[in-house]
């Protein structure tokens, strides 16, 4: 059955599926994800994700914060979304992690994440002690234009509520994902041009080569 007619199932991922989720992320998330593919080191684009980046994402599978879309006939993962718990001190924790790692790309990604936490300030804006924050949303290309991304976000919205979060937020790195946020009545709280971002030493460590170079943070009560 082709992608047009296949039935899609949505559910929380379990730890035993980490290797399959890794393969899905490497296949259709990291190659297209704006921040990952825009990182520049010594004037060279470093396209592949750091192993630390992958392990960080997979760690939230063990916390029950990853949802997957599965093509029923073949059991193939065709969509992935992963969330984490964000608190007022999360930005500082990310910066501590950046200082501790010896992997430059991962360090710069953590610094960028900390910057996004500071500028978005979702906990402060929504007066909440914690936020259910979606930071991975990806759909396999052959299965796009079927609202799978939106259904995964709706699934995560319900998951956050079931875990007693009052607020769900997300960082979107492309216009399609941002439109999902708008359709779900999420409020845009910050927008960052990746090409204008500088780290603490004034370096431009990200250089988006396409018209899409914006990271936007959206949030809403649930």
Automatic annotation (TrEMBL):
InterPro entries recorded: Acyl_CoA_acyltransferase, GNAT_dom
This protein's name: N-acetyltransferase domain-containing protein
Every N-acetyltransferase domain range: 121-171
GO function term, MF aspect, one: acyltransferase activity, transferring groups other than amino-acyl groups
Pfam families cross-referenced by the UniProt entry: Acetyltransf_1 (PF00583)
Organism: Anopheles dirus
Top-level taxonomy: Eukaryota, Metazoa, Ecdysozoa, Arthropoda, Hexapoda
Top-level lineage group: Eukaryota
Gene3D superfamilies: 3.40.630.30
